[in-house]
Amino acid sequence: MQAPTHAPTQAPAQAAAHAPARASAEPDEYPLAAPLPPEVPPGGMPPGEMPPADPRAAGPAAPPAGLRVCVACRAGQVDRDGYCENCGHAQPRERDHMEQELEAVAAVSDRGLRHHRNEDAFSVSSTTLSDGSPAVVAIVCDGVSSATRPDEASLAASRAAGESLLAALPRGTHPQQAMHDAILAASGAVNSLADRTPADHEHQPHVNAPACTLVGAVVTSGLLIIGWVGDSRAYWVPVDRSSPPARLTEDDSWAAQMVAAGLMSEAEAYADDRAHAITGWLGADAYELEPHTASFKPDRPGVVIVCTDGLWNYAEGAGEMAEVVPADAADRPLHSARVLVGHALDGGGHDNVTVAVLPFPAPPQGAGSA
């Protein structure tokens, strides 16, 4: 399966680089320790004194402060791009695989099998509303690969949106308004990255500016809020599977526009090469920002799946997504997030893949339906 294009319609997508091969590290060899120097008396060293250091007994010299040693050859130093200057081996990056679990939410992000770095990012957290009831937050962002520094864009957006929600919800801001404001905060954080551009873009800082998509969810005791810009998605999967699952977001994409305008059927639109070109994103070169938010009141317990297209490309429909979500997802969100990432990797892992799983509790008595 060919990896979909994340790029804005006015910027051509760049081909994803293949991940470099991973080599196993060779064990270090240590020389045998030498006998104590002859000046040491037969009874050992005087009390409180240590024998002089013997250089033959020392292991490999520690690298200078601030320098990394290659995990493969253990000899070369790692350059700024993350490659060994001796053997050329690519070093593991912190964001290649990330996991986080809280009591009521978990998220997993993986580089995938075809990309040389992970350009996705997430933020999960929990807080309380002004009435003291709990609220759980998940933000997932996907960097636009054809843009400048997409990994920085997704990280900045996920952090800004998460921090904005954690500040607004306890103050009594309605969760839907808080989500709208969080997307604006994320947009501002990404826009600020355009000011740090190379010298050759000095007079056009917004050309091919850092960009990303965003999808987020807020779960309270009886309310589910979704917000998004771009083509990252949220799905609803009921625990008992007695009612149908649902997709909660509509893509900002060329294919979605064609279907909404009645110009193509869904099958025709998504078969087109332009299908995954996004029409909405966060970034200084984006069109007028239109954050999407939606409010739901599910009438039964379930789980909310918040993900990038690195996952939903392998389970696009709500029914397909529900089939790969484990039956015990509400009780084991981290395990379920790992299973979903594994599903994408087993399918080919053509893109970075990130998913957050948020259990939705049984609604209070008298709660309305979605």
What report would you give on this structure?
- A hairpin with a 4-residue loop joins β5 and β6.
- Residues 1-45 and 53-60 have low confidence and may be disordered.
- 21% of the residues lie in helices and 20% in strands.
- By secondary structure, it is of the alpha+beta class.
- The strands form 2 sheets. Strands 1-2-12-11-7-8 form a 6-stranded antiparallel sheet.
- The protein has helices at residues 150-168, 175-193, 254-260, 266-271, 309-312, 318-324, 333-346, and strands at 97-102, 105-110, 120-128, 134-143, 211-219, 224-229, 233-238, 246-247, 282-283, 292-296, 302-307, 353-360.
- It starts with 96 loop residues before the first strand and ends in a 10-residue tail after the last strand.
- α1 (150-168) runs antiparallel to α2 (175-193).
- It has 2 domains: 21-89, no CATH class; 97-360, PPM-type phosphatase domain (Phosphatase 2c, domain 1, 4-Layer Sandwich), CATH 3.60.40.10.
